Amino acid sequence: MEIHLPSVPMMEILSYLDAYSLLQAAQVNKNWNELASSDVLWRKLCQKRWLYCYMFTLPLHGLETWKQFFFNKTWQEHAKTRAKPEDFTYKEFPMEFEFRAHPWYISRHGLTRNGQGKSAVCMTSMNRISTWDIHEGAMTWESPKQPSYIVWMTTLPEMQIAVTIDMQSTIKLWDCHNKEVLASKTGLFFSCKLLQSEFTKDGPIVLVGDACGNLYIFRIPDLHLISKVNVFPYSIDELYFSPQKKWVFLIGHRLNDLTKVFYMSSLLRPSEFSAPVSTVLEVPLIRKVFWTPRREDRITLMSLILPENITKFDTFDMKLEGIGNKVTIQGYLTASFSLAEDEGTPDHFGVSDKDVIVCSTRFSLLLFDINGLRLQTFHYCPEEIWRLWVDPVHVIVTCDAGSLDIYAWEKRSLLLRKCYRLRNRNYQQMSGYIIKTLCDDMSIISVANNSPKPCCLMAYTLNVCS
User: Fold this and answer.
1) What is the DSSP letter of 147?
2) What is the pLDDT of residue 4?
3) Can you give the pLDDT at residue 137?
4) How many other CB atoms are there within 10 angstroms of residue 7's CB atom?
5) For residue 14, what is the enclosing H or E element?
6) 3-class SS at 48?
């Protein structure tokens, strides 16, 4: 005899389950299947995993349920791990001298099962920005020539918007389909040192850090100034958002490291807080920072211990606490370890959603748990590792010859699985170095600085993945 529990308590219980557990619950009986397939539950899972789900409706993606979206998007994310090198099309973009060699993705759709997905990047010249279809190797849009040189750019792929700042400290918002500027403001800050756009639960924003240590937050699309706060006595050099944009970690490098972690709601809703809510993590000589994917409150800092040049990893859990009517932030040290001297000095690192730290030294790729237990080693000598890309699904190693090694995080273990190598197809011999590697669901791009020759953008686009 089947037992039917009341629907409301059952939905509350099911809301704590992950996707795999929901699928198991759906096998119990017809009633459980109906509840476990609820759009309310699957939308919550989608929004937790992909923040931009807050801003669109399913019909725009040709889907009927959030459960369909979850599995389609998961399929997209893992497409590259199922591929082979021959499944990629290679395109090369020799850039003119005036191009700045730091492209940003502007495309919002990943690979689709019917092959209609497209990847596009946005690049800047001295006084123009342009977008490129990297599968076709063709320019798709170009802005008018600007009166002042563009010094910073960022993009918001979810809205196909680009943000630029020029030498006169004028910030401009561009819809990368139209010639006219969406919004423009000038004279608010002095000498921009940091520019980043993000999509938050409160809507899309752009952040500007200036040479005086001020952080400005503007609303997209009208560039209304939401808040301004002085973070450091000098410039903000680096900024890192937590996965769901609850926290933002900032670093100022000058003489000694200065750090602050802000509660984003206190910056986005200044009328609700008497002052921005922040705390300091006392870790000197920070070299890299990485928030744990799909885990909102955990951050790992890679720092250097002098004079021994020993690398240290510290993992903190951030917590919001209330004392009377006052809200405070506490950072609790969860784990810490140092690398042995013979393990080298890592240049790059990242963290998986299972709290596995992957870092690259000059000749090795190393995996540790957050307490320092060595899990895996990949040797690269005589090749050298120049760049490391880490996301919740992939790890991409860029070698000195321009080749790319693609790894995937194992689902049922803490280890990495090497999938394949994309060999450098650049017809000119590499005379410089790779300055940037990044990827989306269907492509991987690298920028090579072949000085004194023009920079080169190399793009691998996934065609078919069964």
Assistant:
1) S
2) 61
3) 83
4) 12
5) helix 7-14
6) helix
Strands 88-94 and 181-185 turn out to be unpaired
List domains and CATH numbers for the chain: 7-77 (1.20.1280), 79-462 (2.130.10.10)
Please give the span between the terminal C-alpha atoms of the chain, in angstroms, as a whole number: 42
Highest mean pLDDT among 59-68, 126-135, 384-393: 384-393
Strands (E), 339-393: 348-351, 356-360, 364-369, 374-379, 385-390
Q: Which residues contact 336 (CB under 8 A, 6 or more apart)?
A: 312, 313, 314, 315
Give the integer Cα–Cα distance in Å for 422 and 424: 7
For helices 66-77 and 39-49, give the axis angle rounded to 10 degrees. Answer: 30
CB–CB of 157/197 below 8 Å?
no
- Cα atoms found within 13 Å of the Cα of residue 131, Cβ hemisphere only: 23
Tokens representing residue 232 in the block: 């450091």
pLDDT tens for 186-227 read 988 888 899 999 988 899 999 999 999 999 999 999 999 999
The burial class, CB within 10 Å (0-12 / 13-18 / 19+), for 334 is: middle
Confidence of residue 449 (pLDDT cuts 50, 70, 90): confident
The DSSP output letter for 431 is -
Cα angle value 359/363/364 (rounded, 5°): 40
Q: What is the pLDDT averaged over residues 365-374? A: 96
Q: How far apart are CA 258 and CA 263, in angstroms?
A: 17
DSSP letters spanning 74-86: HHHHTHHHH--GG
Q: How far apart are CA 262 and CA 241, in angstroms?
A: 10
Identify the burial level of 145 via C-beta atoms within 10 angstroms of its C-beta, where 0-12 means exposed, 13-18 middle and 19 or more buried: exposed
* Cα–Cα distance, 307 to 66 (Å, whole number): 53
Secondary structure tally for the chain: helices H, strands E: 7, 32
For residue 247, the one-letter residue type is: W
DSSP 264: H
Give the global pTM: 0.88
For residues 374 and 365, is the Cβ–Cβ distance under 8 A? no
Spacing of C-alpha 320 from chain mean position: 24
Q: Is the pLDDT of residue 1 over 50?
A: no
Is-contact 260 252, C-beta < 8 A?
Answer: no
Q: Token pair for residue 435? A: 């300055």
For 304-340, the pLDDT digits (tens) are: 988 888 999 999 999 998 876 788 999 999 999 999 8
Give the residue from 318, 267, 266, 265 showing the smallest Cα distance to 291: 318
Q: How far is CA 461 from the centre of its chain?
A: 19
